[in-house]
From TrEMBL:
Chain residue ranges for the region called Disordered: 26-51
Name of the molecule in the record: Substrate-binding domain-containing protein
Biased composition (Basic and acidic residues): 26-38
Signal peptide per UniProt: 1-19
Chain ranges of the Leucine-binding protein domain: 54-392
Record key words, sorted: Signal
Amino acid sequence: MKKKLWLVLLFAMMLVISAACSKSDEGEASSTEKEKPSETTPVSEEATSEEGGTIKIGVLASLTGALESYGKQTKQGFELGLEYATGGTMEVAGKKIVVVYEDTETKPEVAVQKATKLLEEDEVDFLVGSSSSGDTLAVLPLAEEYEKIMIVEPAVADSITGSEFNPFIFRTARNSSQDAVAGAAAIAGPGVKIATFAPDYSFGWDGVAAFKKAAEDLGAEIVIEEFADPAATDFTSNLQKIIEAKPDYMFVVWAGANSPWNQIADLKMQEKGIKISTGAPDIPALSIMEPLVGMEGFSVYYHTLPNNEVNDWLVKEHKARYNGEVPDLFTPGGMSAAIAIVEALNKTNGNADGNELIKVMEGMSFETPKGKMTFRAEDHQALQTLYSIKLEKQDGVSYPVPVLIRELSAEETEPPIKN
């Protein structure tokens, strides 16, 4: 009897242990099932690596506000650049390319917020931007903090690759010194008196400082420097001071929709003997520069100026995608930034680690709509071609057209190293 009781107890204990093990296995399976990512859950780095993975790029641009047209040109150029560089696959080294665009609103504090979101929430591998030098300068430290490559386009302030430089910054945009060399080459010479007019922020300050040095090196004298509120619409007081200084030329550094061209015409400055010179702006701004036909200056880009296969592709595809419109001033810059990223990732076989990319990008050359660009090893500024031009009226075109006088080579426009 005791033996039977012992057997019953033993059997009962085995059932309990068996049930407990069964429940434990079910719990582990349930836990594992919960950890599996759904279609809307971001996949882990290990999983994406096994499947080929992704490259995420965060683009900061002024998609609204005064520099909206610049931001949209950059965006369109960047999208076309990725298509061109990847042969239409939108992949590099077996990894899919994903792009996230953020509007900085041309406000440095917003730019920092959006860049932080891209780095922390979207976990981007690259930053690109921005339309404003002020926005860009505010974001530069984040690229170094997170050790992510930032391609600067189209901001031009010298300080970006100068006093505020860090090794994670590479710039496809030209800088103020390159503009200055091109601008000075057009008008400066011994005994020439020049006034400068620019917006009162980093873009204007750096532009004037660089132009002044380049012009004085060629023997010219800067007789007055006028800086205006970039948000202003009335520049009469600034322009009157320049008229009173009686220069031979007024060199204008400007960006944005609220340009001074109409007031310059209204004040008849050229009739007063003051010749106007500037960098040829984008097409909307050219459309109000009718009074400046005959002006000699420089251009960063106009679609008929470069003569190369990449630009031919850009012009053809841009017309096809955007209702016959030609690429504008900052479209090729966006394209160049995209090409640079794909070129670098091809060299690292898809490794987006910032420190590894620095090694291959320093001194790297790549073909763009403006011809060959090279990231100078010392400051990561892209050396590039600019254009000496004259504004001319052409049949069938509603605005003054920048006509090539001569190309200014990358060697000729190479800026000083300031970092």
